[in-house]
Specification:
5-stranded mixed beta sheet; Peroxisomal Thiolase, Chain A, domain 1; 26% strand; binds acetyl coenzyme *A; alpha/beta; 325 residues; 32% helix
Length: 325
């Protein structure tokens, strides 16, 4: 029986020009390049310029994804932006992206699942495509995480960076086997009882401020390895594949030790892990599409290969997606 699959036809990315090194941060907070590298694997991160908004990053990534898909903004009928650092409380950043791209009137909204946002957004877009409500969907992960940093808290301000990644999804009727192209399986999770481990201490209906990111790093770390492994196994079961059979593992880029720990726990060869955390740091919902775009552009990821995406973030949320390019 044939099924309608959402196939990734283009991938794009954008990083702000401004680079902040560990040594730059050591000038404003009590830290060192050696500590940050050893504990996180991070060497540098990108930071938005004055006047550069999350929608600007999103639009740049979107234009590249559209070009690589051979599409124009006029072809779009759905835009979903996964972000926790939107331009304004409202409208949705997706609506701002629609305006800036000059796309026609279409369906546009944001998904807020913090670092898991891109995986959540892919699954939402997949539903629209499967229902025939979208024939050319733009899914973006875009963040200006540096705007949420408390630059007196060395435990968090060294971990995050800014950027955006985007994919174009288009419907394709496929035989309905694990050899199909497209999004093949998902697992999405949220445990709100763990809110206090990772959150922003501001918001429109509480403090009326934007707030700063707060994190109990060690506890998040412990949950990350266990939760991610469970989510990945569930997504692989949904897709009907073995985790070890994937060609590439594209984890959310939070910490090199988490990436390696999860790969080890899942029996995934380290050579299959796409890693950008050293140069991008944690860009929340943008980290997976940024990593994917880099590995597609440099030719590591080839059409037809099986990819495993996973993320975990504030909520706590976590999830995974299996797709064949
Ligand atoms: N520079 C120097 N020392 C530091 C720094 C720093 N930047 N940050 C913390 N320290 C110190 C601490 O104060 C502590 O000192 P003390 O022993 O004198 O009290 C010591 O280093 C050890 O601190 P820990 O927090 O135990 O360090 P740990 O090895 O756990 O590393 C880290 C901290 C990197 C934050 C780690 O716990 C981590 O990566 N956690 C997970 C983060 C994550 O994955 N988040 C995912 C989602 S993010 C999202 O969803 C938005």
């Amino acid at each position: 029986m044939s099924v309608m699959r959402s196939v990734v036809t283009g991938v794009g990315a954008y990083l702000p020009a401004n680079i902040v090194t560990n040594d730059d941060l050591a000038k404003i907070v009590d830290t060192s390049d050696a500590w940050i590298r050893e504990r996180t694997g991070i060497v540098q991160r990108h930071k938005v310029a004055e006047g550069e908004a999350t929608s600007d990053l999103a639009v740049a990534a979107a234009r590249q994804a559209l070009e690589r898909a051979g599409r124009t903004p006029a072809d779009l009928d759905l835009i979903i932006v996964a972000t926790t650092t939107g331009d304004l409380t409202f409208p949705a950043t997706a609506a701002i992206v629609q305006r800036k791209l000059g796309a026609p009137v279409l369906i546009a909204f944001d998904v807020q699942a913090v670092c898991s946002g891109f995986v959540y957004a892919l699954s939402v877009a997949d539903g629209f495509v499967a229902r025939g409500m979208a024939r050319c969907a733009l899914v973006i992960g875009a963040e200006s995480m540096t705007k949420l940093m408390d630059y007196t808290d060395r435990g968090t301000c060294v971990l995050f960076g800014d950027g955006a990644g985007a994919v174009i999804l288009e419907p394709s009727e496929q035989p309905g086997t694990t050899a199909d192209r497209g999004l093949l399986g998902f697992a999405l999770r949220c445990d709100g009882t763990k809110q206090d481990l990772l959150y922003v201490d501001g918001g429109p209906s509480t403090t009326g401020t934007v707030g700063h990111l707060r994190m109990a790093g060690q506890q998040v770390f412990r949950h990350a390895v266990v939760n991610i492994a469970e989510g990945v196994e569930a997504a692989a079961a949904d897709a009907g594949i073995e985790v070890a059979s994937v060609d590439w593992f594209i984890p959310h880029q939070a910490n090199l030790r988490i990436l390696k720990g999860v790969a080890h726990r899942l029996g995934i060869d380290e050579a299959k892990v796409i890693c950008t955390v050293d140069r991008h740091a944690n860009t929340s919902a943008a980290s997976i599409p940024l990593a994917m775009a880099e590995a597609v552009a440099d030719g590591r990821i080839q059409p037809g290969q099986l990819l495993l995406l996973e993320a975990m973030g504030g909520g706590l949320t976590w999830g995974a997606c299996v797709l064949r390019l």
